[in-house]
Amino acid sequence: MRHYQHWETWIGLLVCGLCAGLGSYFGGEYFGHSSISAGIGGGIGALLLRAVTKYVDRRYYSRAA
What percentage of the chain has pLDDT greater than the value 70? Predict the structure, then answer.
């Protein structure tokens, strides 16, 4: 929960939602399966969010503390 005190995590969360939204839009528009594509986009967004939280963890919180 401490990661959500930093702006980088909130941007990552926004990007995660945008990936899911874009996946839903493009999947519904071009493939006819918006929910499947939203899941794929959300998965990609979750990977990006995980990378951002690892970055915040390394930058702001040391292992010695």
Answer: 97
Tokens of 37: 């594509």
pLDDT tens for 16-34 read 999 999 999 999 999 888 8
Whether 16 contacts 51, CB under 8 Å: no
Query: Considering only CA atoms, which of 1, 60, 47 is closest in space to residue 20?
Result: 47
Contacts of 18-22 spanning 24+ positions with Cβ under 8 A: 18/45, 19/44, 19/45, 19/48, 20/45
25 φ, ψ to 5°? -65, -55
- Residue type, position 21, single letter: G
| pTM for this model (two decimals) | 0.84
